[in-house]
Write a structure and sequence with these properties.
about 350 residues; 21 strands; 5-stranded parallel sheet; D-Amino Acid Oxidase, Chain A, domain 2; globular; FAD/NAD(P)-binding domain; 6-stranded antiparallel sheet
Length: about 350
């Protein structure tokens, strides 16, 4: 049995903590945002503050692989999501046969279990807080790493825990960084004398403008085309979610100064209404406060192994702390698209 510290209490951190705890380890999960998740899905959407997640109210789509892993490894989490109104949907079978080519054997593997990010994270949190081997501490900000000498690799530090902003030192056999795409891991490693991790990094150059809607009867709009629709200067993203809600997004180039006006709700609405395959997705009650904007997205892959040796031992990265991409084509970690892959509009 190992002592494990997980840094970051988002979807990936919570699921990782659950899996480690159920493998028999003692897990302490540290989440910097102090507010606990509300139980009710509507309260999670309207009243839960997650300042550490800048895309918290942005469009999300949890890919079929996520459902597959949950049903195999965390079936009670899948059940909790369904109980909170998460949507089971299959992009392939929901499209007109003229678009998809008609159903084929094996299409069931494309079934997703998806919803708005606050609702999904809240449901997972309710399961995680009841897990005997998993302690969740909210409002715990990690300031840096604790280190010791690594006997197998001269000059390479071994991470043996973390220190919080409150000065508390938590020792661990393993530290898991699940703190997201803005992870400060390179600075933490430098502070304990480690070499920088190897990184591939590129600004994707895209901006997302998104809004969410709700139907009166619990339905979601019919799909007349694929969820991601590329046009000349924009792409439109149409994502069904939980409890009769859905998201609509405009994806543009960050250098397109004219389309920056899409941050205004009236302009955003006029743009979406001008595309016939998407216009009917505005036929619902708006549940967004204005237009949510997500910009300065980078594609990044981080390796903790460089030049034939590790930069540090005792630490691993998970989710966006390991790799993140531009959201819309589904190249993200399986839990989190659509906010991490490559837009087809440019």
């Amino acid at each position: 049995m190992a002592e494990v510290v997980v840094v970051g209490g988002g979807v990936v951190g919570l699921c990782g903590g659950l899996l480690l705890a159920r493998d028999g380890h003692r897990v302490t999960l540290l989440e910097r945002d102090p507010a606990p998740p509300p139980v009710a899905s509507d309260d999670a959407w309207t009243g839960w503050e997650r300042r550490g997640v800048n895309q918290f109210h942005m469009l999300h789509y949890f890919l079929p692989r996520f459902r597959e892993i949950l049903e195999a490894e965390l079936p009670d989490v899948a059940a909790a999501l369904s109980g909170d109104g998460a949507l089971r949907t299959n992009v392939i079978t929901s499209l007109p046969a003229e678009v998809s080519g008609g159903p084929r054997p094996g299409d069931e593997r494309f079934t997703a279990l998806t919803g708005r990010r606050p609702v999904v994270e809240s449901a997972i949190s309710q399961v995680a807080r009841r897990e005997p081997g998993l302690e969740i501490r909210r409002g715990a900000v990690v300031r840096g790493l604790l280190s010791a000498i690594e006997p197998r690799w001269p000059g390479v530090p071994r991470v043996v825990g973390v220190v919080t902003d409150a000065g508390e030192e938590l020792t661990a056999d393993l530290v898991v960084d699940a703190s997201g795409r803005r992870s400060p891991l390179p600075q933490w490693l430098a502070a304990v004398g480690a070499r920088p991790p190897e990184e591939e990094r590129e600004d994707s150059g895209f901006v997302y403008y998104g809004r969410h809607f709700r139907s009166r009867d619990g339905s979601v709009p019919p799909a007349f085309g694929p969820p991601l629709q590329p046009y000349d200067s924009v792409s439109i993203l149409l994502l069904p979610a939980d409890n009769g809600t859905w998201g609509v997004g405009l994806i543009t180039s960050g250098s397109d100064s004219v389309l920056r006006a899409a941050r205004h709700a009236d302009v955003w609405e006029r743009i979406v209404k001008s595309y016939p395959l998407a216009a009917h997705w505005l036929d619902g009650e708006t549940i967004s406060d204005g237009v949510e904007v997500m910009a300065k997205l980078e594609d990044r892959h981080r390796r903790l192994w460089a030049g034939g040796t590790p930069v540090a031992t005792g630490i691993v990265t998970l989710g966006d702390a390991w790799a993140c991409t531009n959201p819309s084509v589904g190249r993200a970690p399986p839990s989190d698209c659509c906010t991490h892959s490559a837009c087809a509009s440019c």
